[in-house]
Amino acid sequence: MPMVIPEVSDYTGPHNSRKLSLDPLAERYKLIGTHFWPKFHLHHYVTGARVWIPDADQVWRCAELAKDYKDNVVAVIYEDAQGIQQTEDLKVKSDEDLPPLRNPDILIGENDLTSLSYLHEPAVLYNLQVRFCNHNAIYTYCGIVLVAINPYDELPIYGQDTITAYRGHNMGDLDPHIFAVAEEAFTQMEREDKDQSIIVSGESGAGKTVSAKYAMRYFASVGGSADSETHVEKKILASNPIMEAIGNAKTTRNDNSSRFGKYIELDFTRNYSIMGANMRTYLLEKSRVVFQAPDERNYHIFYQLCAVASEEKLKHLRLGHQDNFHYLNQGFSPHIDGVDDGANFHETCQAFNLLGINDNSQDQIYRVLAGILHLGNVIIDESGTDSSAINKNDESMQIASDLFGVDVDDLRKWLCHRKIVSGREVFTKPLTTSEATFSRDALAKHIYAKVFDWIVSQINKCFAAKTQPFRFIGVLDIYGFETFEINSFEQFCINYANEKLQQQFNQHVFKLEQEEYVKEQIEWEFINFYDNQPCIDLIESKLGILVLLDEECRMPKGSDQSWVEKLYDKCKKWDHFSKPRLSNTSFIIAHFADKVGYECAGFLEKNRDTVSEDCVNILKSSQYPLVRSLFTEKAKGAQTKVKVMPAGPAKSKDMKKSVGSQFRESLSLLMATLNSTTPHYVRCIKPNDDKMSFTFDPTRAIQQLRACGVLETVRISAAGYPSRWTYNEFLCRYRVLCNSRDIQRNDVRVTCQKIISNMISDEDKFKFGRTKIFFRAGQVAYMEKLRADRLCACGVMIQKNVRMFIHRKRYRTVRNAAMTIQRYTRGLMSRRRVHHMRQTAAAIKIQACMRGWLKRVRYQRLKYTIIRLQSCARGNWARQRFEHMRRVRACIVIQKHVRKYLAVKHFRLAVKGFITLQGMVRCFLARRRLKKLKIEAKSIEHQKKLNKGLENKIISLQQKLTEMKHENNNIKAYKEEITALKSQVVDMKALESQLKGTTNRVTELEALVTKLTVEVEHERGEKMDILTQKEQAEKENRELLERLNAENAKLTEELKEAQKEESLRQGEELLRRKFEAEKQQIIMESSEEKAAYQRLLGEYNRLEQKNDILEEQLAKVKGGTHKRSASNVSNSGASDTPTELVRDDIMDLSSMIGDDDIGYGSVRSRMSENSDSSRNLENIEWESPQKIPNADIKIHVPERVEDITLVLQLQNKVRELEKERRTMAKRVDQLETSSSPLDDSQHAQELIRLQELEMENAKIKDDLNRLRKSIAESEPHNNQVQEFMKQFEALQDELERRREECIQLRTVLANRSSDIRSLTENSYGKDVDIVNEDGELAVAYQTQKQVNRQLEEELKTEKMRHKETESEYKSELDRLRRDNERQQKLLSQNLSKGGGSHPEALLQSEIMRLTSENLNLQGQVDSLTEQLKKYKRTLKAYARKLKEASGSGSKRSSAQGSPHGTDPTDLLDVANNETDVMPVIRKKERDYMGMFEYDRSDEMQIIRVLIYELKPRVAVTFLPGLPAYILFMCIRHTDHINDDEKVRSLLNNIVNGVKRVIKKRHEDLDSTVLWLSNTLRLLHNLKQYSGDKAFQAENTVKQNEQSLKNFDLSEYRQVLSDIAVWIYNGVIKLMEEKVQPLIVPSILEHEAIAGLSGNKPGGMRGRAGSVARELESPVEPQKALDLLLKEMTQFYRTLAMFGTDPELITQVFRQIFYFICAGSLNNLLLRKDMCHWSKGMQIRYNLSHLEQWTRDMRLHESGVTETLAPIIQAAQLLQARKTDDDVHSICDMCDKLSVSQIIKILNLYTPADDFEERVPISFIHKIQTKLQERAEGEQAQATLLMNTKFAFPVRFPFNPSSIHLEDIELPDSLSLSMLKKV
């Protein structure tokens, strides 16, 4: 009968019906004992079965049954520590006590412990040991728990590539990792919208801090904030060095042990990016500050300060070596191997800076910490029986007081005394030496705790979010279960916290199991698990340990002994509490992990945590703000609070909470927080106590596994249904165990039920869920055995038949081969016999001849040898005799010289002895004399002589001292007199002020007048100084201009030389072109002469009419009826167009000059054009309102030019002005030389009139000047009059300028009329009337009138548009002027407030900024003005062209019939030759020049049509790269007309347009590829037509002629290349995003080879997350490969469709294939279930499809498939044989894989079946040894995972186009009517 599933609270509450035994630990281990493991059938215990037996050293030992189990006796065989086999018979009480069975080898090393078939303690321990030692895998899943074993080594598994690999994967898809847990938490927060928490626990040295650090690093990486200015995630990571420095220390178990617990909440926004954080700390170990056990250290920050004590900024701390401080030398272990304290200190300082803690605060922190060290060196002496004192000369006391900023006497006093308040009296009680020492240490601990809390609060302030966080993820790094030989209050609190966490863990695990069963709708029975609520009640109930401890602390005479006696009395009712037999000062608590005995000594004092209130008050009065704030402000949220010892009974009632109470409250708050989140568990295991890398101690490991709850998870899983299979997986795996008739393909569940019913008879061993089948522990192993037996039988049958076939075939082959061999052998033997006989006869003949010849040769050699020997022997004898004689003579000579040498030596030795003897005698006499002198020196008379000089010196010094005292007295008297005089001066000043107040008004006014007079004189002097400075600045400016002119002239000469060389090279080509042009010109002129003559006559009549009108206007001016202005220079009737244009230019020029704004040092100028003779008068206006006639060009340069950009702008402005000045001078010279006397009487009369007019105007001007001067002199102080006179002068200057312009205009008209008249007379002689003999002039006149009307209408429209633009510019200038005035007012206000360097610097920077802005704005105004002028010139050109067309007769009609109207080249010629009277008329050319002409105003329209609005679906119908061709043809036109601003504007708009389109459509692959292709095409065109010979190799002659002539656009080529690289990267990113979800399903999971199953090996189950959820793959693996190939084909088609270069297509797919390889290989390296032989075959087959695709697309020859080499070699490695003979071949085969990758794959290799052998450890070691040679030179392949962000260098090879520009036509679908083909 199935049981109803009750709530969790029914089994976890304190009133559980299950009665615990007297020993809770016994009950605990009974629950996880062997008898609670599943009851297996006895037929498993047969001969050969492998079991686990207990062992004293290894905890569990592997053994094998020697015979079948019977009669409660188990006979086992095992190997001892020496490798010797031992046999032992084990007796068991019952079947439940049988030794646990071992798992099959196929399950050894699994990622998840709960996936083992047999779940028990030895299986868990052995699996962890195999993974850790053999596979170097430090992470393992155990249900929802991640077990992390400390490797004590650096592993390359925490890089950014690893973070990327785990991002987006479900927990269990990849190998166990801390990143997988972090990803699970982050994903659940995103999907379920719920807060998460990660609980990291373990004992000291297990790696908790490192695990928590890596988890936060993962969150910082995947949840990086979008605000680049805050970088909250960087600040969170930066807090780690600070917290490690102040909270970590070296212990016997860990070099970097966290001595506090912390809980960090990472706050996230709604977009799930980190916005802030919050840190809570728990139970800082303050006792370590004053005491350290042997081989331990204090907190790291102290040693870091000592390491850098010699630095300049820390010398004031007066620190030294750490052994000199009492608080640092108690552990006798000041150094940590591999740790540089100095470097860590600098890292801590950088972290402080990053968190916003300034240098001043850091210095005060270091002062306090150094003061703690010096305080520990204070020596407290015993001054009596019950008192103590500190020596006044104690240097450490003085230093500590200085560092704390307190009075040394007060601190010295209250360290040795205590204040007692009794009623209204206050007594001071001295402290004993021990009490004073305790008070000193308590103060040091209290100060350090305050500093720790302050730093934590500052970090939290830096982490604090500005807004309310949306969700958070908490990371709890807390101490694990601790038990030592002596356990105190700290261990009690730590174990209490672990009891609470274990209870929460048990409830969560049980809840998940229950949810899984309910979800699958299966029936299950209650799982009994250990409940530690009684132990928690023992600690925190009303009469619990903590309550009794607080009560004892409140007792006046409470002690540790009285408290422990209360515990014996009150807590004896608890089963978890006991008293030791041999101790009355300790007690034992049975925790969930082990029994722990606690010594009561120190419990009360640590719970009180008292410190002297007097010492605290002293610190409150510190001169340093930080020290005061530590003790005056109450730290919020601080978890290490202490209470101050009260000074008397008045304050005893208001007691603060004890440390235990505070810890209990903070722990309750923590548990509430954890219960409101979804928890994730990380259990850290310390593998050994010696800190050896990858060394596993089973004894230590099993203790921690029992303590951290891993075995509890295993027990709960084993008690239920740990093995779980989906129906499809089960059928695929165990299909072999059923017959084909039992399979129902429409219902998989029924088929699985039939299979299981045939294998397992007990229905309790399995359950059928909704989507899964659940099995009891051991059933999967049983089914695997049945499957292996079935496969073995099938294998035997197959082998039998195959071997029979092979042997039969081999016998037949051998028989046929033997018969053939016999036949050929017999024939061969016969042929060999005949050949041997012939060789024998020939050999005998040869031997006879040979022997005779040998005998003769031997005789001759012997004879010759004997003769040579005789001659040599005789010669040798003669030489020996001669040598003997020579030696005898030499011996005689040697004897003579030796005897002489001995005699001389004997004589010299004798002489030396005599001299030595004399020296010794003389020394003896000298020593005797010295002795006498010493005796005399010691006599009294001699001393008196020496002391006479000293007495004189002493007397003189005394006299000097007396004089100095006398002078000092005089000085004191002087000081007193000065003080008295000062008081008198003060009195006199008061009297003086009274006298000043009583003076009459007249005196005040006189003083005021005098003061004003002085100020006027002072201002006049300042004015003179300013004028002097101005003259100096002008002089400097002139020098600067001269220097710039010289540089300009030098550059001009160099340019001319370069142009000469270029002109010489192109001279011949130009001459040939000119000859052809002149020939055509002559032909055209002869044919058009009559038409030209008619046009000239019409022009003559109009000019005469215009001349008459001008004369009338001149007469009016002479009469003085009205003022002369630019508006009068017009024609009231049918005026001609050029005159109207001149009038408009003058009006626009005058308006622009009048509207110029005033800025700092800005220059207003109007540049003239060489082609416009009407603009030869230009004005330069300055900011000053005063008009200085004939002034030179001046530029105000500030005295301190700090802005380089401003200087460059000013230099450019100077160059432009200088160029304009030279142009004006040339024009004046041309006008002077070209002016000729007028022969016409009318012009002579006009000249006389002009002279008279000038005389009259001069007279009037003089009269006005005299009148103005008289008015100005009469009222010199009237500002309005002065302002009026200034305005009058400005108007007068304007009148003079307009008058000069009118004179020039009339001169131009006169010249033109004279030229026309002379031309007519030359053509028709004096008979001019025949010109109009047939009335053709009247017809031309009427036609011209119509044309003029049309032009006037067009001009009016254009003028209105220009006026609107002008009004916009004026409004913009007005706004800028107002801003300028406002900023000037602000500056003046700031200056008036006060002086100083800072306001002056601000003023200078503001002036520089405004000057730069004014120059930029003026440059924009100038550029717009120039554009306006160009537009007007273009209108003039069109007007003249139309005028010429109206008088051209038949030629005009032909031009109208042409498709393009008039030839644009004629317009250009007219525009460039406006000063010519006779226009150039050319014949229209048939061939196009390959360019598009456009107007500047249509530029944005072109960009909009070609870039912004161009759609890929439309562009694909065009010529590939057509937009690029069109844009380049427009660029060619700007080059043709040599318009620099136009080409720059066009190119800048093209660049900005492309960027804008890509940014807007960056997610559209077609758009990005379209503009990648067009950008490269435009880049290639710029290179092809640049004129550079390097790019002209494949050009035609016509293309070379079309090269750019005037501009060098290499700068823009680089810009386009950068844009192309940017677009290319965007294309790659888009493709990678589309390919990324298909990589793993298509390459790794796709199974196309029938019969090769790549499913998980037997016994494995899917990883169960913290929350039960099913996430399916986004793509089905069976369809993924086809989808991938389809995507690749689509990519290729898109690239080819838009005309992408083939080389670039190759680069694209090379990068994509690398990304596929990196993604698949990284996933393979992190998935153990993929590493077996059949999966390697499937992967290689899938990769062959990609290789075939490259061959189909003809990409295989370009090296694209080479990027797949790593994953191909990985697949081959999985398929290769792995024996000792294959070591070399495997190393040679895997040359593209790194050493770590090869070893990782071999470690992950897991056989899919029992028939496949595992990789031996010895083989892996041999591979690793062989690869060490390659690893020495391997740098780039040092990491485990491939870098998925790696990008190959991008290259754009030059690809010239064969398309001719003149053949390109504009499609009708593009609205580009503004473009005209030239």
In short:
The protein has about 1900 residues and is α+β, with helices and mostly antiparallel strands.
- Largest sheet, strands/sense/barrel: 7 strands, mixed
Query: Over all CA atoms, what is the radius of gyration?
Result: 54 Å
End-to-end span in angstroms? 98 Å
Unreliable stretches covering 5 or more consecutive residues: 1-40, 226-230, 635-654, 1120-1203, 1235-1239, 1393-1398, 1446-1486, 1657-1673
| Helix fraction by DSSP (H/I, runs of at least 4) | 55-70%
Q: Give the rounded overall mean pLDDT.
A: 77
Number of H- or I-type helical stretches: 50
Structural class per helix/strand content? alpha+beta
How many E-type strands?
Answer: 27
* Portion in beta strands: 5-15%
Q: What strand line-up does the widest sheet have?
A: 5-6-20-7-16-10-11
Shape: extended
